[in-house]
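Possible regression after last week's pipeline update?

I re-ran a chain I had predicted before the update to compare outputs. Posting the input and the new output here so someone can diff against the archived version. Not blocking, just want to make sure nothing changed silently.
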Amino acid sequence: RHRAGRPGGVLAATASTPRRPGGVLAATAGPLPRRVAALLADERATGHPRVRSGFRGRRLIAAALLACVAFSAAAALDAAADLHESVEVAQGEAPR
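New output (post-update):
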């Protein structure tokens, strides 16, 4: 059959795509691999300033985690003391 608008029955989508050599994989061509390569490239090569990771932010996160651990440890000790007191009361000892 003959497709309208294209000689020889070639579709418009296939007519505009360049022919690749048989040994080249499709995974190495196209926009996605180029974007990944651009992301992995040196920051100075793309003209963008380097993003600072911020030592101050890391300290703040570490302090927050340390505060959470300390709060959890204090809560666990308080719960253990309450349990011990409840066991003593259940055994007939006078509450403190």
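Follow-up from reviewer: compared with the archived run. The chain is about 55% helix and 0% strand. Marking as no regression found.
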